[in-house]
Amino acid sequence: MVPAVGVVTVGADERAALDEAQGLHRTAARLVEDTPATPPRFSGPADDRVWTTVRWTMPDGSPKTGEAPVAAGSKVGSSTTVWLDATGRLRPAPPTVRRRAQWDRAWAEFNAGRGNRHA
User: Fold this and answer.
1) Strands 49-57, 79-84: parallel, antiparallel or unpaired by DSSP?
2) pTM value?
3) Which of 2, 30, 59, 117 places its Cα 20 to 30 Å from the Cα of 107?
4) Residue of higher predicted confidence among 87 and 20
5) Which alpha helices (DSSP H) does 1-119 contain, by range?
């Protein structure tokens, strides 16, 4: 049985993520080039994504091209999801509930190390 408090917390986090996503919509895009099999050395310890050129189609049928992060080792023609604003420009994906929880933990650790001092 799942405690009710946990269910309410997850629901609130999901709602916050949806609120942040307002104004964005996702669409399918295709890679126009192969990506390296491994990410650059300094991309981050848990980051397996690389920036590459993708192409997508706007609702009016016009093609668009831009740079987006995709999984390392992806091949030309592979499908990926990109996030667009109301004008059709690429935007970072809204944070997932999991990512927001990671940020919360990281900030809590940072503040604990500072002794909650304010500048």
Assistant:
1) unpaired
2) 0.62
3) 2
4) 87
5) 4-21, 97-114
